[in-house]
Each structure stands twice: as C-alpha cells, then as structure tokens.
Amino acid sequence: MPAQGKHRSSKTRRITRAAAVVSAGGAALALPLIGATGAHAATGDTTAQTYTVKSGDTLSKIADAQKVDGGWKKLYDANKNVVGSDADRIKPGMKLTLDGAEQKASTTATASSSDSSGWVKPVDGSTGTAYHASGSMWSSGYHTGTDFVVPTGTAIKAVGPGTVVSAGWDGAYGNEVVIKHADGRYSQYAHMSSLGVSAGQTVTAGQQIGLSGSTGNVTGPHLHFEIRTSPDYGSDVDPVAYLRGHGVSI
Ligand SMILES: [Zn+2]
C-alpha cells in the first residue's frame, strides 16, 4: 500500500503551548451555555406574546388553546396583576401575557437547531486514513485524526463557530490552525500550505481559514483533522462522530 498522503514518524515531538492551560474541565463548563443562549432567545420571543381576552373565555380555555406550559394556573400566576385575586374574573379586553406559553418546546427546538446549524466538513474531499487507524508511523501508536485527501491549495474551512487558539508552525503538523468551540472542544487542521487566520480571531462555521498543503511530516498533500478536548496533542476524540453529532453528513 502506497504511503501517499500519510504521516511519517513523529515520535520525538512534544507540544507545549501557553494556551494549554485551558483545562478540559473548564471547557466542559461552556457546554450548557449553548442551551442557555438558546433558552434566552426563545424566552425573548415568547414574552412578547399577549392574548386579549374574548367574551366567554376562561383561563383554562385560553391555557389550552395557547398551549401554556403549566396550564391555567401558570397563566393565572403570570397575570395576577391584571386578573386580580379571583381567577374566574377575567373580562373581555384584558391583555394577558403568555409568558411561559410553549416556552419549554421553543427552548428545546432553539437549542438543538443552534447546535446543529451551520457546521460543515473541514474541506470538500473524501476521507483517507481513518481515526484510530493503528500503525508505527504515529507517535501515539494510532492515528489521532481523520485525513481528507485533497490537493494542495484546497480551501480549508472552520467546521463550526469558534475562536482561533493558534495559527502557525507546529513541527510534524506543519502549518496548523487550532480553533476552540463553544462546547469546549477544539478542532485542529494540519499540513496547510497557507494560513488565513491568526490567534484570537473569531471565525464562523464554514469560514475559510487557509489552504491545504503538505507541510510538516507528510508524504503527500492532505488535510489532517482532529477534534480534541484540549488544544494539545493526545486529547483527541473521534472527529467523524463529532461532526455527525453536529449534523454534518460525512
Ligand atoms: Zn492524519
């Protein structure tokens, strides 16, 4: 089998970087923030909703029709200042807030869609050497990423929104970009021929971050792509499973 597009031995490499102080534990705390942001947006939408009481309405009728999460009691609680002390005394023309109506459902939908929207493959190309392929050519004893077989000069894209942690030369990986995402995971793009971003820069999903190449320890041009729990070598997780978890077809 030809060694085209693979790594050569990099047993001696050892990465240390200032950015490495970001712990996986601290990063993991960022995960609920996605949901929190989504929930906030959803709540903002629903708080703007009001309902004008019509003749013959009751709180339970309105709660059912408007799918208020928590039923008429929740609706009454949210509108005590308008309705007064007696839940039966609602009058036509009263404006009730539907705060809480369908809140649970919208929050879920918003959180899941923001999680999966916009994520892309790092490059348009087919995958070569798979994650965890074993072999003596890798310092860890197995392949820590997934390779995409693409010619030099192919656009490399950020798989999701994030912040560039580093962009520069990294030994066996050649020209490399590492991006931190909101869920505390890091994506790494190696062997690039040119870098289009710099450390500290914010990127969007699908934004071009440079061009593919064959820099570092390679026998041919390809993109080596990793997902990590820290910015550093050795904290890799399955990149294909990760991308699929974000709705990417791969
Ligand atoms: Zn590789």
Structure characterization notes:
It is built from six helices and 13 strands. It is of the alpha+beta class and 250 residues long. The protein has two domains: 37-116, LysM domain (Membrane-bound Lytic Murein Transglycosylase D, Chain A, Roll), CATH 3.10.350.10; 121-245, Glucose Permease (Domain IIA) (Distorted Sandwich). The strands form three sheets. Strands 3, 4, 6, 7, 8, 10, 12 and 13 form an eight-stranded antiparallel beta sheet that branches. Strands 5-11-9 form a three-stranded antiparallel beta sheet, with no helix packed on it. Helix 2 packs across helix 5 and helix 3 crosses helix 4 (71-83). The radius of gyration is 26 Å and the shape is rod-shaped. The protein starts with 23 loop residues before the first helix and ends in a 5-residue tail after the last helix.
The radius of gyration over CA amounts to: 26 Å
Amount of beta strand:
15-25%
Tell how many strands the DSSP assignment holds: 13
**Which CATH class of the largest domain is shown?**
Mainly Beta
Structural class call reads: alpha+beta
Major sheet details: 8 strands, antiparallel
CATH superfamily of the largest domain: Glucose Permease (Domain IIA)
Average of pLDDT: 77
Secondary-structure element pattern, one letter each: HHEHHEHEEEEEEEEEEEH
* Whole-number count of domains: 2
Number of helical stretches of at least 4 residues: 6
CA(first)-CA(last) distance: 24 Å
**Unreliable residue runs:** 9-47, 102-116
Per the CATH scheme, the topology name of the largest domain is Glucose Permease (Domain IIA)
CATH architecture of the largest domain: Distorted Sandwich
Report the bound ligands by name, code or SMILES: zinc ion
**Helix-residue proportion:** 25-40%
Shape: rod-shaped
